[in-house]
Each structure stands twice: as C-alpha cells, then as structure tokens.
Design brief:
Helix content is 57%, strand content 13%. It has a single domain, classed as Response regulator (Rossmann fold, 3-Layer(aba) Sandwich). The chain starts with a helix and ends with a helix. It is α/β, with parallel strands linked by helices.
Length: 145
C-alpha cells in the first residue's frame, strides 16, 4: 500500500512537471497575431504524443481513432519486452499508457524503468478496453491543457 502511495505521488509530481513544460512551450509558440480563434487555441493545448504499450493489436485502429479525436498522437508497441524499441517510443512521447491485462510482466517492468529514466509519466491501466483507454486519455488530455 505504501508503495502505491509513493507511485501516485511520483505520478502527480510528473504531471506537475509536465504542465510546467507544456506552459513553457505554449508561451514560446504564441502567435504574433494572438490567435483569437478557439480552434487554434485548442490545437496548441493538446497534440500530446502518447505511447501505448501492450493492449490488443486488433483494437489498435480504435485506440488511434480515440487518440486522434482528442488531438493526441498514438505510438504503439506490443509490449513483448524489446527494450530498445520500447525506449525509442517512450523517448519521443509525452506520456505512456501500459496495459496490465494483456502485457508481459517483463514489458511492464521495462516500460516503467524507461519512463522513470526519462522522466515520463507511466499510467498503468488494468483493462485494455476502448472505454477505459478513452476515459483515461480524456482525463489526461484535459489535465495537460
């Protein structure tokens, strides 16, 4: 239980850090004409790059559609423990979703360690269902605005 509390606190700290980084990027990328259209502001707020490790390959297209609808870019890895490939995906993403129900134990450990090394939030989802992915992504996408 104590370990879970530390993990939650770690993730909260990472979210705070990421918010600061996102704010800095937004400040530096402001339009000269102050971008008055809501569409422009919304597109600058999101565009998160999400790593998706594990899950069901047959649902990959649906995961991508959900991410795209929230203006996020999704990068997939099947979680088969190839450290080099997982590292490559994690490094280019803003945060990582790791599905617990259909992911190898080794894949989860590797993903978690790589995320810690590069300071990326790693969110473990118990279910690889589209609904749980969409709910988690919606919560995070709006958190990072």
């Amino acid at each position: 239980m104590e370990r879970l509390k530390r993990e939650i606190e770690f993730l909260r700290d990472k979210i705070k850090e990421f918010k600061k980084i996102r704010r800095g990027k937004e400040d530096s990328s402001k339009c000269e004409d102050s971008c008055t259209k809501n569409e422009d502001r919304d597109s600058r707020k999101r565009n998160l790059k999400i790593a998706y490790i594990g899950g069901l390959y047959k649902l990959k297209q649906q995961y991508e559609e959900v991410a795209k609808s929230l203006k996020c870019e999704l990068h997939y890895h099947n979680g088969n423990g190839r450290k080099k490939e997982i590292r490559k995906i994690v490094r280019k993403c803003d945060l990582v979703f790791c599905f617990v129900d259909v992911n190898s134990h080794n894949g989860r450990i590797i993903a978690k360690k790589i995320c810690q090394k590069y300071g990326k939030p790693c969110i473990f989802l118990r279910s690889s269902s589209i609904t749980s992915f969409k709910q988690a992504l919606m919560n995070l996408a709006y958190t990072y605005e």
